[in-house]
Amino acid sequence: MKMKLTRMLPASCLLLSLMIPQALLAQKPVSSESPSYYNIGGVLSNNESESHFGTVIAHLNFDQQYVPRGTTYYDKTIRIDKNPIKTALNVCKHLISRRVYAVVVSHEPTGDLSPAAVSYTSGFYQIPVIGISSREAAFSDKNIHVSFLRTVPPYYHQADVWLEILSHFGYTKVIIIHSSDTDGRAVLGRFQTTSQTNYDDIDVRATVESIVEFEPKLDSFSSYLMDMKTAQSRVYLLYASQEDAYVIFRDAAIHNMTEYGHIWIVTEQALSANNTPTGIIGLKLNNAENETDHIKDAIYILASAIKEMTVNETITEAPKDCDDSGVIWESGKRLFGYLKTRNIRGQTGQVAFDDNGDRMYAEYDVINVHENHSFVKVGSFYYESEKRKMRLKINDSSITWPGNTGKKPEGIMIPTHLKVLTIEEKPFVYARKLLDDEIDCADDEVVCPHFNISNGNEQEYCCRGYCIDLLKALAQRINFTYDLALSPDGQFGHYQLKNHTTGIGTTVKKEWNGLIGELVAERADLIVAPLTINPERAEFIEFSKPFKYQGITILEKKPSRSSTLVSFLQPFSNTLWILVMVSVHVVALVLYLLDRFSPFGRFKLSSNDGTEEDALNLSSAIWFAWGVLLNSGIGEGTPRSFSARVLGMVWAGFAMIIVASYTANLAAFLVLERPKTKLTGINDARLRNTMENLTCATVKGSSVDMYFRRQVELSNMYRTMEANNYDTAEQAIQDVKDGKLMAFIWDSSRLEYEASKDCELVTAGELFGRSGYGVGLQKASPWTDAVTLAILDFHESGFMESLDKEWIFHGNVQQCEQFEKTPNTLGLKNMAGVFILVGAGIVGGIGLIIIEVVYKKHQIKKQKKMEIARHAADKWRGTIEKRKTLRASLAMQRQYNVGLNSVSKSVSQNSEKTRYPILPPLPRTPERAWPKDKEYIVNRKSTSAGKPPPRYMPTYATDVSHLIV
After folding, report:
1. What digits encode the pLDDT tens for the residues 223-237?
2. CA 434 – CA 416 distance, rounded (Å)
3. Contact by Cβ (8 Å): 755, 520
4. CA neighbours closer than 13 Å in the CB half-sphere of residue 732
5. Long-range contact list for 624-629, CB < 8 A, 24+ apart?
6. pLDDT of amino acid 494
7. Backbone angles phi, psi at 416, to 5 degrees
8. What is the CB neighbour count within 10 angstroms for residue 727?
9. Quick one: DSSP state of residue 557?
10. H helices of 598-641, where?
């Protein structure tokens, strides 16, 4: 422990550390009860302080709020010595030997190390030390000053007041000037830490543009001032000693940096310089040199901590001496913890401590230097008990600024000629290469050269578009000139790995490229382009308020209408068509059966014209059913029975409903049908499913790419599309048109423009990842507020809306919308199936007629053969009949001759045969003979059958008309 303590002590205190004996490590027995009296040590700077110290303790013993009955406090004081060794020896000899429970130490004006010696000595035994005037940053280090706390704040706490003053005046970019000692670095660290911790709004947060660190006791500050002149900020925060501040103010006056336009905010030490310029604002701690008030506050917070500690635990006796009986006092360590939790209202204001034991809620006066080096209080930084926090109050009207004026400076040097960058992105920026024979760009264009960083070539381009018109309006409104150029690498900007060669080797570092990289490296002042505002970019650059609000959407090509040859069948499903076909034939069959078996339908009925109506056969029933369904005329073959006609009426109603439904649905399918998008949006399962054969992409390193990277739920989708990402949006959109890319995910403004220009493209789903396009500026740029106010004014005046109509929509949106709302004109694709159906009917009819002709020819040929065979048979039969008749005649002649000879028969018989001779058979005719021939055929058949002919034969009668029956 002795070696460790030696390393922590400065050289002037090494002798003190060697005086601490090893016997101090021995343990002292713990008392079972807290002491009834407490000795409080004081190391003070003068007699007045010593006297007041004793008086305060005497009065404390009668204050029952802090000192319970049976407890008494005693004062033990010594005078602080300029020599820290003597001070340490006196602490051991006169204070620790008397068992002091705490030590209150003052600050010797000419000796900085004496309080440190008291802290080292007492802290080694864990005896709490309360400083009432020590403000150096070193006492905040608890590794060295383990038990030190103070009722005054350290110097570097003035950075908190600086931030409040900057916030009050609205200064966001500053230059910090500090000495290269511990306190100077502590001021810088406190300022940066508090700024990022307590000021969340980046728009009002003070940022450090430049840090100027100088060695104390300098002779000249001119070289630093020349570098400060090149910065934009004109707000200087100075931490320096009185002697260094004198040199800085002297040289600043020589370089006219104390005149109007420059703002100096300084600490207490710099404010006390003899040559502080007029208009400087400084701080002064309230009660900083009032030891008596600090002594009282120190004693009372100590009594408050002891009282609370005695209630909660037992306090052991303090160490007795520094020789051989001292110990590490555990109760002292715990007492120090109780002291840090105090929060009381004292003589110096609200007294509380932070974790380092430093005073919080310290109150300051804001001092302004007027003419003749007069200090005027213009504000205060005080504790507001109602809200329990510090508050700054400044009377702006009473402030005199540098240059002896009452007008507040801007705090920055605003350049009037800016370098502006943009990027080609239709319709916001159109860029065309300047032709060889062209001298200058057109009136609506601006020269925008492109310097290619890859090959070092520079080419002249002319730019126009939405953002160019916006840039012209901004320059006119807020009065600046500009040089416009295109992005060197053609990208908006994203993080990329770059190799950096250092003295120890090559390191890989992430840097911004594209437009963002140019702005971060301060090679450009503005970015006027469709630059999406997102958190990654806002961390490194400033954004104006959005000039256009938009989101992310998906572009795809409209699916072509699926017009097939059977499009006219779409109104009904296949099942319904089958049922209709079946119903036709079932109804026809039932009609035939009802008409067939009905008592009123079996027989032929006479019509009015004397003809008879044929019965309803199956063919006529089918014809009737189809005719009713297709609403065609029914010429004949209608049901005749009542039951069949009832079914026919029901079928007619069915046909009416079917035809009406078909007509209505056909209009919906073929006339009003619009092709729908294939995707429903970003949540479409086909986009989320990496196994689906669906290609989607975005632009590498763009804001959309960054959006997908930070969305955890889209990680699978991003891994799939990362390999398909394009370098530019132009390539992706062209591939969507060509059908090579199914979905392109990009900013809605650009995609809506493309969809309005080409009605074959469509955006799918709702917007997601909503954001806006903003003008990019450098961090803490002086133009941020002016650009933002101008853009807001443009929104209110309708200027931005006019830019939308002129550049983004071009009036094509109305055309596409009108096209979408207009019913489709039916074409051959839609109705080709109907014509093919008619053609099939014609071809079928021709085929059937050919079959009928062939069949008829075959039938006629067969009939001819039958006629020939029948004629041959009839001829053969006639020949046979003739022969039979001839034989019969010959036989009769022979009989007659014999009869005459033999008189075997009478003459009457012979004459009878002669009257009725046997006639030859008539030739056979087809069955389609005339009706009048039927009786002749009957008579002929009866004769040939052996029956006697009629009495009178018409063949042998001269006039037989009266004999025909």
Report:
1. 899 888 878 889 999
2. 28
3. no
4. 26
5. 624/588, 624/591, 624/648, 625/584, 625/585, 625/587, 625/588, 625/591, 625/651, 626/584, 626/588, 628/652, 628/655, 629/580, 629/584, 629/655, 629/658, 629/659
6. 79
7. -105, -10
8. 12
9. E
10. 618-629
Amino acid identity of residue 229, one-letter, is K
Parallel/antiparallel/unpaired status of strands 129-131 and 100-105:
parallel
Please report, as a single letter, which amino acid is at residue 836: I
Helices (H), 690-797: 703-710, 715-722, 729-738, 748-757, 784-797
Which of 226-230's residues contact partners 24+ apart within 8 Å by CB, and which partners? Answer: 226/255, 228/175, 228/257, 229/255, 229/257
User: Whole-model pTM?
Assistant: 0.53
Token readout for 530 is: 């469709």
Question: Is 747 one of the annotated binding-site residues?
Answer: yes
Question: Coil, helix or strand for 380?
Answer: strand
The annotation status of 267 as a binding-site residue, yes or no, is no
Other C-beta atoms closer than 10 Å to the C-beta of 936 total 13
DSSP-based three-state secondary structure for 167: helix
Q: Which two tokens stand for residue 749?
A: 């403004």
Cβ contact 677:762 at 8 Å: yes
**Does position 897 have pLDDT exceeding 90, yes or no?**
no
The answer to whether the annotation marks 532 as part of a ligand binding site is yes
Task: Supply the pLDDT for residue 935.
Answer: 46
Going along the chain from its start, the domains and CATH numbers come out as 37-152+290-352 (3.40.50.2300), 155-287+364-398 (3.40.50.2300), 417-550 (3.40.190.10), 574-597+617-672 (1.10.287.70)
CA atoms in the 13 A half-sphere facing the CB of 716: 11
> Per the annotation, does 703 bind a ligand?
yes
* Residue 252 vs residues 223, 238, 263, 275: alpha-carbon distances, Å: 11, 12, 12, 11
Q: Write out the DSSP string of 339-358.
A: HHT-EEEETTEEEEE-TTS-
For helices 703-710 and 715-722, give the axis angle rounded to 10 degrees: 140
758 pLDDT band, cuts 50/70/90, is confident
Q: Could you count the other beta carbons within 10 Å of the beta carbon of residue 476?
A: 10
Give dist(CA 790, CA 796) in Å, integer: 10
Cis previous bond, 782, omega within 30: no
Question: What is the helix (H) or strand (E) element at residue 369, kind and residue range?
Answer: strand 364-370
The verdict on whether residue 530 carries a ligand-binding annotation is: yes
Which pLDDT does position 109 carry in this prediction?
62
